[in-house]
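Record 1 of the preview.
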Amino acid sequence: MHDELIALADEYWDGLMAAYPTSATLLGDRRFDDCIEDWSAEADERRRASWSALLARVDALDPAGLDAGDRVTRSLLRTELANGIAALDRRLTELAFDQMDGVHAGYLTVAPQLDAPTPESARALVARLRQMGTALDQALDRFRA
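->
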């Protein structure tokens, strides 16, 4: 069951990085440098469905069949998924929208932290920035709704 648990954790992490590519870049994961977050309600619905299905698969792993380290991993993964689902249910994209917090403020905060150590990563980040208007429009649509 160890391998199955690690595969579930990897699936969660890869999905999280794909969903939040700016955070991935800040963490040093360059796979998504050319992407920007999808702030649409539909993206949240897809993410919630994916995380709910993943949580069910984690819950199906019997902790009795895991060693102590894997039980901790299972518990942490389960907590991350449950907290992620709860955060989506709170619709924070729509609630956090003022001069200090929200999608727009988050991008302003991380902008000086983004780097491009190679020409390829610089091109990828330019591709991300070209999508900024769409991301902000998605957040604004949710706020208006």
